[in-house]
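Extended Data, panel c. Modelled sequence:
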Amino acid sequence: MDSWLDLDPDAPFGLGTLPYGVVSPSAGGDRRVAVAIGGQALDLAAAAGAGILGPRLVTEWFAADSLNRFMSTGPTMWRELRERLVELLSASRHQDRTRGVLVERQSLREWLPWDVTDYVDFYSFEAHAKATARIFRPSSPELPPSWRSLPIGYHGRAGSVVVSGTEVTRPRGQYLDDAGAVVDGPTRKLDIEAEVGFVVGVGRDGPARLQEDVLEDHVFGVVLVNDWSARDVQRWEYVPLGPFLGKSFATSVSAWVTPLVAFDQARVEGPPQDPLPPPYLAGCDRRGIDLRLRVDVNTTTVAEPPFEGMYWSPAQQLAHLTSNGARLRTGDLYASGTVSGWEPGQAGSLLEASLDGTVPVVLDDGTQRGYLRDGDTVTITARTGRGPRVDLGPVVGRVRPPLAEPF
C-alpha cells in the first residue's frame, strides 16, 4: 500500500512501520505523542483534538510526555489506531486534513518515549554466550548448566535507560590492572552490546504464569538497545551475582517504538530447543523476528548481527520473567541480550569482535579499536529481512570523557 506522501521506498519509517515517539518543538514547548512517517511526524494529540482519529481515541492519551497511558489501553486499541493511521496516510481523501497535523521531524526534539518502570536483560544468543565464556571463563564450560533450561538474565536499572542521542560518559569503577592490582578509575574497556528490546504495554499482577498468548496480549512494541558495558569492571565484579556497575551507568534505547504488530509478516521459527524446556516455556510461541542489525562505530560498519537466531523467543523470555509470580507493569522493558551470529562480522560486541582487544577492529580512517575511545559515536540500526520493510528506530550514542575527580 502506498502513501499520498510519496515516500522514498528505501527510506526508513514507511507506511509499514509507523513507530510511536514523544516529541516537542526544538525551540521549546509541550511534549506530545507522535507517529513517524518518513521524515515527518504526525501529532496524535492534534489529530485527536481535530476529530481525525475517531471518537474512541482520546486527546488525553497523546497530549502527554510518555506513551504509557496509550500503551495501557491494550491490543484492541493499538490495532484500531494503527488501522486508522494507515487509512489517513494512504487514502487521498484524507490528505488535506492530515497535512495539518504533520510536522517535519528535523524541527522536533525527541524524548525517551515511555516511562521505564523496570528493566531486565537476557543472554539468549548462543554465539555470544559461548564467545563470552571463552574470554571470561576459559577453564569453564562454554555454557552454564542452566542455559538450555531457562532464559538467563539479569535485573538492570530502569533509571539508567536513556534515549538515543544521549551522550554516554565513560564510567569509573574497580577492575584489575595489567599487574593484577585492584584500581578504581575510568574503564579501559568500554563496549557495545547491540540488542533488541520489548516494551510492555499491558501489565499483570502475579502469581499467574503467562504463556501461549503472552506476547501479543502484553507487548506493545520493539526498540533497539545498546547495553553499554565496562568489560573490565564487569569481569571483576560479576561473580557470583552477575553484572552491576559494569552496566548500570547507561542503557540507550530508540526514540521511536515500532509496534509489535508491524512485524506480523517477519516472524520466524527459532532454532530447535534440546532438551525440551519445562511446559511453561515449551508451550509458548517460539517465533522470533527476522531482523538484520547493523552496528557502526563512527563511519565504519563493524557488525551485521542476525536477530532471527535467538535461542529463547521473546514470548518465552516474558513467560520466564513472570514465572515466579513477579508483577508485570506498563512500561517494563526487557532486552534480548547481545545479538551475535556465528559468522565473521556478526558479533554484536567489541568483546567478541576484537577478542577482548587482542585483535583490534580496523576502522575506515585506519585507526584501530579493541574497545571504544572517547569521542566515538556508536549507531545501531535494524530492519526486517523478509516481508514488507519495517524499521526499528536507530539508537545512537557518543562517548564522553570520564568526569574529573571529585565528581
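The chain has a mean pLDDT of 95. This feature is highlighted in the accompanying rendering.
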